[in-house]
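Translate structure to sequence.
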């Protein structure tokens, strides 16, 4: 996982990217801003990145007072732009996984979810089980009939209070909840059209429109 945090008005820049390259015992091999890999033990810090702990194939680091979990083999995510307050970051860079999919971690109404970017989906789409897990009161939404790959299906149209990918947060985002289980939440155009999208090889850059 690649994470980035930029300072607000302080003028101090923390490391822009951190990735987990390997684990040896209680030490994590991290790559900071593309430099040579460096082993860190719990409590050690380098270039504003402090290793908190190592467990299994993951490591927890602290950057600028915020903790992030890095996992071996996880699709990288890079964040940039302004501070995280109010409108959030103005720029997000996603890196495709081994299958060519963009699978960022994110939040809906403050609850963690696993997204998959789908430019063919008009709205954010999730299954009922996921909606229940994040305590979304979807049954108060508008009943709709949705065309899927397997034919038509009943669903609920709802408005999400907030959707966050990295430090980029968007409010009042349209979504559809479908009855069938889904392994992830489709990050559709009701979120994506708030950004200017540009793909370059295995990277997808989202620049905030508004």
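Result:
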């Amino acid at each position: 996982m690649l994470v980035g945090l930029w300072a607000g008005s302080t003028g101090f820049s923390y490391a822009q990217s951190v990735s987990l390259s390997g684990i040896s015992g209680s030490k994590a091999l991290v790559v900071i801003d593309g430099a040579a890999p460096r082993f860190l033990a719990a409590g050690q810090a380098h270039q504003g990145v402090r290793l908190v702990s190592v467990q299994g194939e993951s490591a927890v680091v602290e950057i600028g007072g915020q903790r992030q979990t890095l996992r071996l083999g996880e699709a990288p995510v890079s964040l940039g732009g302004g501070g995280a307050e109010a409108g959030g970051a103005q720029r997000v860079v996603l890196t495709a996984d081994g299958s060519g999919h963009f699978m960022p971690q994110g939040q809906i109404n403050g609850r963690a979810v696993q997204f998959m970017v789908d430019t063919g989906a008009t709205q954010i789409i999730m299954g009922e089980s996921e909606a229940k897990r994040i305590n979304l009161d979807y049954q108060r939404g508008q009943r709709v009939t949705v065309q899927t790959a397997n034919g038509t299906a009943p669903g609920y149209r709802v408005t999400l209070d907030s959707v966050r990918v990295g430090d980029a947060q968007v409010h009042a985002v349209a979504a559809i909840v479908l009855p069938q289980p889904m392994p992830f939440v489709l990050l559709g155009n009701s979120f994506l059209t708030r950004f200017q999208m540009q793909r370059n090889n295995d990277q997808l850059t989202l620049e905030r429109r508004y």
